[in-house]
Structures are given as structure tokens and as C-alpha cells.
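Figure 3 (text version): C-alpha cells given as input.
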């Protein structure tokens, strides 16, 4: 369990400073500041682990990484940069140097309101296209905060598609937050308690499988929960995986949707989980014509939203998103990540880029209607 400071130091010591990771890193690419590059972040982490004094800009460099993992795909020494950055955030929290004030606002919202987007808990289920179904199952569709409040289409279309495909599942009336932001901010003390409460709730309902439309929740349930609590009794799958399995038996039920789109590989689903061909196959079954962005699949650009950076460094997050959208050859983008969908649409609007980003299941639902 966990990744120790000693392991992090040993990994940092293998860095040859070859600079292979510099140009590929979105925060370095946008800012041109070497402090915000993977190589320099390792240097900062080493100083932090040695107990040296750390100034505000160095703290910023640890918190403004969206953990896109692009550096890890090119590093010849296979250095787990994002795990080292996470360990650094934990040490910052232990030394009372983090999380930052803006992080703290989100953390307070999670603890008080049970969601990471300052939503009113009474409106959490507004996305639901029908009366709350009083149905029990050992499979839970865990919608997540962002789909519930900010990308409601991703919530309602995931629900409707899974129903139409005949999956037996339940949803929770008091769903709450997965707690990923607590972990990402370095407050693993709070995250551990929060995760434990969720595990107990799932256990009480007899949940054996969790299906998620949100890639942050996916990573959280799949990796962060076991990291802090050990093995959990439930498995986790992304809605794309479930739809692929259900449709694979009978793809001809889909009507053709005449559209040309670009599929955007989110960091956590593509590079993180290797789920790159299934969504493309499903879109192909839907009759959609795919036009790829030059950097796709494991080389895909980052949307700039993840790792807790959007709430703190919004302009940087938006510039990374706009840079990614700049290379997209169509005006219609399909994403299987609600957070990417949200941030890319935000950047497109702010920058006047004329790109519309749609969540994956919205399109699948059109092919099922
Ligand atoms: S994870 Fe992404 S943003 Fe963070 S250091 Fe690596 S390439 Fe840069
Ligand atoms: S690519 Fe790897 S070894 Fe080279 S500078 Fe970056 S972190 Fe160090």
C-alpha cells in the first residue's frame, strides 16, 4: 500500500535530466517556465522530501500539475512522476504548506455538502429523467458530482443507455462524493475517513460492482480507495466498458447517427486505463465518422482540468484546454470524461473556438432512440 517517500527519492535519483519530458508537458508548454516541468518538479519534490524550505512558487509547481501522465510515456527511466507529485502533496499537507486556500473551499464543500462543485444537495438528482427508482441491485451506477450538477447530460444519458441495454443496476438517493479531491489535494487523512464511510455505505447495500461515467471517480474507486484502505469488495468499471460489453452481443440495434466527430482520449481513460479502442468501436457501431486529432490515444493532449488544478489555477487549466482543442480537426468533439467535457466546452466558449464537446453516452443514446 502507498508509495513511500524513500521510494519516491530513489525514483527521483534515477532522473538523468535528459529533458525528454519537457516539451510534452502541458504546463511547461503553456507557461514556458521550467519550474512547471516534470524534471523540475522532481527536483522540487526532492528538496521537499529532504525537509528544505519551499517557497510559494515551488508549492505552486506541485499543485498546478493536472497529472496527465504524458511525461511518464516518454521518460526513458520510467519515473512515476505523478505518484511522486502526489507524495509531494501529502508532504506539503503534513508540513501545513498545503492544500491552498482555494483547495480548502472545495474541501469544505465536500465535507459540508457532500459534493465537490458547491451544489445544493437537494437538487442532486435533478438530472434523473424519471421518478427515483426504488430498485435494489448489487451493481451501482455511481453518477458523481460533476455529472449530477454540471454535466447533467452525462448523468441522464448514462442512466438511460444502461437501462435501454438491459443492465440491472441501482442508483443512490444520497449518493454524495467519491472524495477524489480530498486525496488529490494531499489530505489523505480526510480522504481515508471519507472513503471508509463510503465503503460502509456500499457494503450495507450489498454493492459488488460500481459503474461510473466519471473518470475521476473511476481512478478514485479503483486506485485511491485500495491505496488507503486495502482491497475493497467491489469492482469498478467505466460506463464505456459496460456499454461495449452489452452492445458487443448485438450492435445492430443501433440506428445510424450521421455525424463526423473527433473522439477525445481523456488522460485517465486512455493513457491511464488503456481504454482507447472500445469507445471508437462503439462510435463506429453508431455510424459516426471519426476524424482523429493528430495526437491521439496514448499520445493525446490533456484537457487541463484534472488533478485538482482547475479550482486553483483556472487560467492555466483553460489555456491547456484551448491548446488541445486547437489541434482538433472537427467542430464536434466526443469525450468519455465529464470533466474534460466541461473544461473543453468552457475553454471553447471563453476563447471563441466554436467547438462543441458532447459526453459519449449522449451520442450513444441518440443511436438507441
Ligand atoms: S503529469 Fe502532465 S502536467 Fe504533470 S508533470 Fe507530467 S506532463 Fe507535466
Ligand atoms: S524524461 Fe525522465 S529522466 Fe528525462 S528529465 Fe524527464 S523525468 Fe528525468
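Below: residues designed for each position.
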Amino acid at each position: 500500500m502507498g508509495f513511500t517517500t524513500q521510494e519516491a527519492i530513489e525514483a527521483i535519483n534515477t532522473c538523468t535530466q535528459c529533458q525528454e519530458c519537457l516539451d510534452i508537458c502541458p504546463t511547461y508548454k503553456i507557461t514556458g517556465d521550467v519550474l512547471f516541468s516534470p524534471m523540475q518538479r522532481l527536483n522540487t519534490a526532492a528538496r521537499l522530501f529532504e525537509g528544505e524550505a519551499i517557497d510559494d512558487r515551488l508549492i505552486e509547481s506541485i499543485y498546478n500539475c493536472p497529472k496527465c501522465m504524458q511525461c511518464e510515456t516518454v521518460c526513458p527511466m520510467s519515473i512515476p512522476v505523478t505518484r511522486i507529485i502526489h507524495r509531494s502533496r501529502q508532504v506539503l499537507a503534513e508540513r501545513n504548506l498545503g492544500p491552498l486556500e482555494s483547495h480548502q473551499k472545495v474541501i469544505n464543500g465536500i465535507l459540508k455538502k457532500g459534493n465537490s462543485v458547491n451544489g445544493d444537495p437537494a437538487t442532486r438528482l435533478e438530472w434523473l429523467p424519471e421518478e427515483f427508482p426504488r430498485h435494489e441491485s448489487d451493481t451501482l451506477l455511481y453518477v458523481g458530482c460533476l455529472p449530477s450538477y454540471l454535466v447533467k447530460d452525462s448523468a441522464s444519458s448514462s442512466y438511460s443507455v444502461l437501462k435501454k441495454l438491459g443492465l440491472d443496476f441501482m442508483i443512490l438517493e444520497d449518493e454524495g462524493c467519491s472524495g477524489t479531491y480530498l486525496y488529490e489535494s494531499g489530505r489523505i487523512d480526510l480522504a481515508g475517513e471519507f472513503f471508509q464511510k463510503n465503503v460502509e455505505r456500499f457494503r450495507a447495500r450489498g454493492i459488488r460492482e460500481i459503474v461510473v461515467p466519471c473518470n475521476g471517480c473511476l481512478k478514485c474507486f479503483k486506485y485511491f480507495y485500495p491505496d488507503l484502505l486495502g482491497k475493497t469488495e467491489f469492482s469498478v468499471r467505466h460506463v464505456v466498458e459496460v456499454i461495449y460489453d452489452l452492445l458487443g452481443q448485438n450492435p445492430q440495434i443501433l440506428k445510424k447517427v450521421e455525424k463526423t466527430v473527433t473522439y477525445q482520449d481523456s488522460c485517465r481513460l486512455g493513457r491511464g486505463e488503456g481504454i482507447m479502442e472500445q469507445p471508437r468501436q462503439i462510435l463506429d457501431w453508431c455510424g459516426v465518422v471519426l476524424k482523429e486529432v493528430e495526437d491521439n490515444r496514448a499520445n493525446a493532449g490533456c484537457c487541463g482540468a484534472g488533478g485538482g488544478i482547475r479550482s486553483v489555477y483556472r487560467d492555466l487549466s483553460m489555456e491547456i484546454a484551448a491548446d488541445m482543442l486547437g489541434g482538433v480537426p472537427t467542430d464536434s468533439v466526443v469525450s468519455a470524461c465529464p470533466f474534460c467535457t466541461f473544461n473543453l466546452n468552457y475553454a471553447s466558449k471563453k476563447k471563441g473556438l466554436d467547438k462543441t464537446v458532447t459526453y459519449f453516452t449522449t451520442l450513444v443514446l441518440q443511436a438507441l432512440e
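The beta strands are 139-141, 209-212, 235-238, 260-264, 289-290, 332-335, 356-359.
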